[in-house]
Design the sequence.
């Protein structure tokens, strides 16, 4: 999802530039893959290369002319029917249906197929890695296949916010409203919980959803939190979200996990013994994305080493995945941060507002959000804080990563230790 959309721009003066389709993608690649890419560049070139990420929607590069400002409004009519942002393999045919997601699948399928339905808003709820994005994009792909003239917009709530801020700064709010109120037939909006506390964006989204509902347009929303669990959400938007058809996606059972692995193996032309598939399905239980990554990792390792993909090889792959999942807990993160900053673990949950405690606490909360699947409410509770305070801590660290070199360095050190299991 994140790497395939990158485009090469240029490589000069030890600077390696790649283009990302939007600001959200740029931030995700920088935070999670920037160090890996620079490390790979050093191995290939033998010299230190600086990675530069630019925003260039629709895969534009220097050869195709100047990079446009992200989500610019002039001459946008030709982009309305673009599939940009939708993964072509995220279709209903490729989605494995089980007891854990059957209702969500049926609701999404009905949303994609029916016209004039009384229920035109769907809210997909699940933890990370269980198929929200797949189902949401499957709706978009299905609609565009049946009617290419439909205007389908797929984005994250962060993208929507960035676009609105850009419209305010460039004095193009009327064009922004026209785009969503009049030109959008289907809106696929991910990570609604990101809008917590963003009052202006909430008001604009509420107006957009009201307009789309009035015109019988379709909206698919997704989040890891129920509308009632999202802090600092205004009443109007909360009412609109709560009025959607809320469909929960649970972790898949063993039988469904086996079906997922077989479907993935077939799609990639992997020949996987049944005992290996059953072993992977029995060990990797919480996250579909991890399950698929385990299969691909095992098949790739077998291919690179030129050896059979057998039980022993799969065991080595699963050992690393399961070890990481079991070890990186909020408690482990607390201990690591406390040791690093030479403070007591209990101080991270205390009421102290001393800077020597506040900063480690904020970083511990940020790392808990990044490396565990715990919801924001549980993370806040673990530090004796409300989820709104936990969200503030995460944002404070994210801002510090861009503005304060010392914070960036500390987070990199702690992240590396977590990823290497040294805690």
Sequence:
């Amino acid at each position: 999802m994140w790497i395939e959309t990158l485009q090469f721009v240029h490589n000069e003066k030890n600077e390696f530039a790649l283009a990302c389709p939007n600001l959200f993608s740029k931030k995700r690649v920088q935070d999670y893959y920037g160090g890996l890419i620079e490390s790979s560049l050093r191995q290939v070139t033998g010299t230190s290369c600086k990675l530069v990420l630019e925003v260039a929607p629709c895969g534009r590069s220097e050869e195709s002319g100047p990079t446009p400002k992200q989500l610019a409004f002039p001459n946008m009519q030709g982009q309305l029917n673009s599939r940009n942002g939708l993964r072509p393999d995220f279709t209903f045919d490729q989605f494995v249906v089980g007891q854990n997601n059957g209702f969500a699948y049926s609701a999404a399928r009905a949303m994609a197929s029916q016209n004039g339905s009384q229920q035109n808003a769907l809210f997909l709820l699940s933890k990370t890695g269980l198929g929200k994005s797949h189902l949401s994009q499957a709706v978009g792909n299905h609609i565009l296949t049946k009617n290419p003239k439909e205007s389908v917009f797929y984005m994250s709530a962060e993208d929507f916010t960035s676009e609105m801020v850009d419209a305010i700064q460039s004095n193009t709010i009327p064009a922004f409203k026209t785009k969503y109120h009049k030109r959008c037939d289907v809106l696929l909006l991910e990570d609604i919980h990101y809008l917590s506390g963003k009052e202006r964006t909430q008001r604009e989204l509420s107006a957009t959803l009201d307009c789309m509902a009035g015109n019988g347009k379709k909206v698919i929303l997704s989040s890891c939190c129920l509308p009632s669990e999202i802090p600092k959400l205004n009443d109007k938007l909360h009412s609109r979200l709560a009025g959607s058809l809320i469909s929960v996606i649970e972790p898949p059972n063993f039988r469904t996990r086996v079906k997922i692995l077989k479907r993935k193996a077939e799609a990639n032309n992997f020949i996987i013994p049944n005992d290996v598939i059953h072993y992977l399905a029995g060990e990797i239980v919480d996250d579909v994305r991890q399950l698929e990554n385990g299969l691909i990792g095992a098949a790739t390792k077998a291919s690179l080493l030129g050896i059979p993909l057998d039980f022993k090889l799969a065991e080595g792959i699963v050992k690393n995945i399961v070890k990481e999942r079991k070890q990186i807990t909020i408690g482990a993160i607390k201990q690591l941060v406390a040791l690093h900053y030479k403070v007591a673990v209990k101080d991270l949950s205390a009421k102290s507002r001393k800077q020597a405690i506040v900063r480690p606490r904020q970083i511990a909360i940020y790392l808990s959000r990044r490396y565990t699947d715990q919801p924001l409410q549980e993370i806040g509770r673990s530090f004796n804080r409300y989820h709104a305070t936990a969200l503030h801590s995460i944002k404070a660290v994210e801002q510090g990563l861009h503005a304060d070199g010392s914070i960036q360095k500390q987070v990199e050190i702690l992240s590396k230790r977590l990823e290497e299991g040294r805690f």
